[in-house]
Amino acid sequence: MLPTTPHAQMCLTRRTWLGLGLGGLFGIKAGGFSMAQSPPGSNRPRSCILVWLGGGASHVDTWDPKPDADSGVKGEFQSIQTSLAGVRISEIMPHMARMMDKTVLIRSLTSPEADHGRASHHILTGWRPNPALVYPSVGSVYTKKYGGMAGALPNQVAIPSRPLFGGSGYLSPEFDPLEIPGDPSQPNFRVRDLTPPDQVTYDRLKRRRGMVETLNRDSQAGQSEITRARAAFDSQTYALLTSSATQEAFKIHEESDPTRDHYGRNALGQSLLLARRLVERGVGYVTINDRSGGLGWDTHVQNFPALRDRLMPPLDQGLAALIQDLDARGQLDDTLVVVCGEFGRTPKINAQAGRDHHGRASSMLLAGGGLKRGLLLGRTDRNAAAPVERPVAPSEVTATLFSLLGINPESRFQSPDGRPISLVDHSSPITEIIA
Amino acid sequence: MKPCWQSLALIFLSLLGSSCGKPDKPEVQNIPVIAPSMEVVGPATGAALAEPMVIPELVLTLLDPGIVAPLGLDGSASAWKVRQGNALEMDRDALFQPVRPGPAILESIGSQGQVQLQPVRVVEPESVDFTNDIMPLLTRHDCNSGGCHGRLDGQNGFKLSLFGYAAEQDYQAITRDSAGRRIDRMRPVSSLILLKASGRVSHGGGQAMSASSADYDRLKRWLEAGASEGNPNGRRLKSLRVSPTTIQASESGKFTAHAIAEFSDGSQRDVSAWSDWKSLDDRVAQADQFGRLKVLEPGETDLVVRYGSYVTTARISYAGPAIGPGVFESLASGTFIDKAVASHLQSLNIEPSPLADDSAYLRRATLDLVGRLPEPVEIRRFLKSTDREKRRKVVEDLLMDSDFTKFWSLKFGDLLQISTARQGNSAPFYLLWLQEQLDRGTAWDKIVRDLLTTRGDPASKQQAPAAYSLENIDPVAASQSTAQRLLGIRLRCAQCHDHPFDVWTQTQSHQFAAFFAKVRPIAPSPGQMMARQRIGYFADGQVLHPLTQKSVSPLVLSGNQPLIKPDTDPLAALADWITSAENPFMTRAFVNWLWAQFFATGLVDPLDDLSAANPPSHPALLDALARRFIELKFQIRPMIVEILQSKVYQTASQPTLTNARFARLNAFQAPRMMSAQQLADSLAQATGMPNRYTNKPTGTRALEIQDPATPSALLDTLGRCGRVDSCGSGIGGSASSSLRQSLLWISSDTVDGKLGAPSGYLRQLLDLEPEPVEIVESLFLRSLCRFPTDSEKQHWSSAIQASPNRPEIVEDLFWALLNTREFLFNH
Asked: Would the pLDDT of A188 be above 90?
């Protein structure tokens, strides 16, 4: 009786959202997740590994060296030749220098924000922050579209935690990433919450579940959509805990020693290896939140030793290993690798030999996942202060990620107050970098 | 234009047994009874007014698609016939097609012999104009919706105003933009708009209308006649209503509703065939695109009708099989709340569930009022008491408990979004002030007034509520927050465009914002701490209209305009308006919010959308609650007593065999999510092991963590409101389930660690070496707040008895109890 024209199906119209109402986009629905398990080899969407350099990495000292800059800008590092003709990067990245022909480097990212929270929100969600609404991150939109589970694995994980604004925003928390705390380089690494406490054996877990079921049968509490939603997440949890595939996926010590050495025997290196292991098993979106101790990449003080001695070596080695490994396994085209922080750092070196927040220019490295191989986009001025060629807005990056991940950046969700909101703030994908 | 409408157009004659009655129509068994029409005019007017059903004479042009059988009667062919006139002929689809100009009268005769007459007049086609005739088509086919060309930036270069709020712009877009390529005046039938709409050339939106439809035909005729915009001084759509506004069915079947458009020249048209129809619950009834309804299952749904840029609703009620009035006696003997719900349920023949037993009631009320579980000693005392008033008394005791203030300041804190993130150093002062008001029982109107009108230093004890105005730095956003939190009105859409589903225009939204423009924080001078911010009055504060860029004067959304003297604070005038007993918004929004603290949803859901297009589940009850709140002089605790002493609140959480679909109508008390704080504290309480919070002393309870600035992975995972946005779908809405939550509860150390702790309850219990049956009883009381049933006692104590490892099985049983639905939900 109700017409379902192709038109009605193609547009997320008001009619659709009226129908979805409470339960649809934002509330809880019985089994409010879907098992988006794509058969292997079919049109499974691409996966994404986001390496988040929280705090904001100095672009001048990494991807955008300026040997001819003013003395208060140039810094302590020299630049070196890379495998991508004409592109030089900082000498503290010798491993990555050999990988640049497989990557896309954007040097003209520019953001109006220079506050950690605001800038993170902008690039992770595609929207400038708004006091009334927190927008969902790319990863959360990904799970909203493709489901919270990838077979027996969660479809979105964050190692060891999600960045600020790397969550579900105005969507339901069911689309948050599953956080995998702990350090995968430690010999006793195991995933908290995905491994019950030692004394709770498989048999005990089974018995407990049986007891809950018996108790629920005579429950004095009625059932409703919300109780069924919880029951569905509980079943999913039992499945995760008892699935050998799930447990297997996190057993990083099963990787060979040479492989583990290749990525680097440190938290970031092994997190990148774990990300590859997860993506290989179907996990769709992995965020690695590299906070490398204390300040992370927020190098207001003693920028140079921090980058050279502490921050960059694990990233340089691990990232190069990841790109090489994915490529060698034929997975690079199906896996989008994104490396960025919330902003760049001031060209001017401050009194404490540090660099401060700088939104106007920063760099971003991408690889695989349907991108061209070996491409430089954009250019900054002599002091790396502002883009002079092809400025790229954070929301353009977000639109590009959505597009490569099979999500139309123009599609819309409904905000909690009923407005239709597009996934990114009026931006289109950066077509120049897409293969 | 001549008025084409007569108020007595529909003649409803009761001609029982008269010669006109044609008993030879066996297929028409029951003619559904149509209740007197009720106008529901949105939140502004409050009470529904009963008025006789008035249906205009239906005017059709020769080009209109046929009309279906008129009002609310069985649409089958035999039920209606043309009684008089040759202007109409019935086609195979039971549509009466206009065939020649002139009058006609349709007639229907019911099984009881009732006769209904429907006058119709067919006229020559008029000229088709854009504003009156084409715009509604764009709405009907979703062309101007937010997902298609109504987007802010249009779709593929073609932009229409969202839901048709700006006809002139749209006319321009269709006839002139893109060098006029969308229409072809020479060969109208080749116009791009026709080709696209009918899907004959590639169109991202697919086929919107088939080339054989009346809609296509109308569009084509408009183009052929020169694509005129219409007479700028001609009639304009003024309002839309649907008739009847309530449809009460007593059996499944087909019904017809009519969309009636009223124009500026006083004329009324039946625009059913040009409107968009949607039933919100299509299990109860479905609507087709002519307003024909198929009523399927007992229950209630709202019909949402859109025409042009207007929207209106009608309620469809379909009563199930009759049940004895005795079923409703108990409920109907209760308070005014119970009477309202009972009469609504009775009208639909939906039985209410019985009342919850004492232990379930005690758990529910304790959780709702003080945010924790009742202690075993409280449960025993309550169950033993033979006082007939014990339920009322326990509510009174809980309301005086100091935890009431703490727990409810969490709720109000969510509503007002009190947090360091929003108010900086003022947040602690703001919270203390709020708690003091709750403690003292300050009336809601006074609280609201203080929030709006306090000036000075928000980081001080005396002027703490000035923190509310910290947001006024952006008056438009501040006015939207106030409308959303305090009035249940969403103005955010109206900021950018006239609100399609409501009465608020962009101009009104900015006029409302202008109240907030003259009071704002004095920006701290460089080097000053945020804490030094003061809220002050700035005579130069203003809001500019986005289109005209002219300063807008403050104007309230409806009713009497408060007087604003020059150079005085307009917010004081706004506070007068908001807190006046005549103001329909504040009381309704508040009682609806309050209701949602005790039931699975508000009477209007979501809580911040008390708009005409979103009717309440029990309209009469919402009105009655609002009236009562005014009588109680806006006092919060007495209003809570009103709700808690109702039988509706006390109803069991389990549906009966027949009422499971009617949680929304309060046939039973559907289980609710526990808030993050309730669940965290309940776990600590049951296990005797407190949760740890950063920089807080051991033993701190979750309800003492009022500001989300205190980090807690536990509370975040359980879904506490971060108070940065309005939390989920409602204002300060409740938590929802997630995988993270289940993982935390089932496999992290959160629950397990508490069970095995040496100082925890379980170890202490086992140290006493109790009998299995005592163990079972204690654990049930501790977690589910009730005694086990005999069979539960029997089952679990023999399981414990039989186990070779008693500590382990007892631990598992306790763990399982903490993972039951009964523990995890408020029911």
From this structure: no
Q: Does A204 touch chain B (CB under 8 A)?
A: yes
Q: What's the CATH class of domain B11-123?
A: mainly beta
> What is the DSSP secondary structure assignment for residue B721, as one 8-state letter?
-
What is the average pLDDT score of chain A? 86
Q: What residues contact B436, with CB distance under 8 A and at least 6 apart? A: none
Map residue B521 onto helix, strand or coil.
Answer: strand
Q: Does A246 touch chain B (CB under 8 A)?
A: no
- Chain B residue numbers with beta carbons less than 8 Å from the beta carbon of A140 are none
Minimal C-alpha gap between B27 and chain A (Å): 23
Residue A226 lies in a domain: no
Q: Which of A1, A21, A219 is the closest to B820 by Cβ?
A: A219
Number of structural domains found in chain A:
1
**Domain contains A16:** no
Q: What is the DSSP letter of B73?
A: S
Rounded CA separation B466/B468 (Å): 5
CA angle B710, B715, B719 (to 5 degrees): 120
Residue A314 and residue A258: Cα distance in Å, rounded? 16
3-state secondary structure B334-401: CCHHHHHHHHHHHHCCCCCCCECCHHHHHHHHHHHHHCCCCCHHHHHHHHHCCCCCHHHHHHHHHHHC
Does residue A205 form part of some domain? no
Say whether A419 and B493 touch across the interface (CB within 8 A).
Answer: yes
CATH number at residue A423: 3.40.720.10
What is the pTM (predicted TM-score) of this model? Answer: 0.78
Evaluate if residue A43 carries a pLDDT over 80.
no
Mean pLDDT of A101-112: 96
CA dist., res. B218 & res. B210, Å (int): 12
CA A57 to CA A312: how far, in whole Å? 10
> Which part of chain B is CATH 2.60.40?
11-123
Q: Is the pLDDT score of B769 beyond 90? A: yes
Interchain CB distance below 8 Å, A178 and B481: no
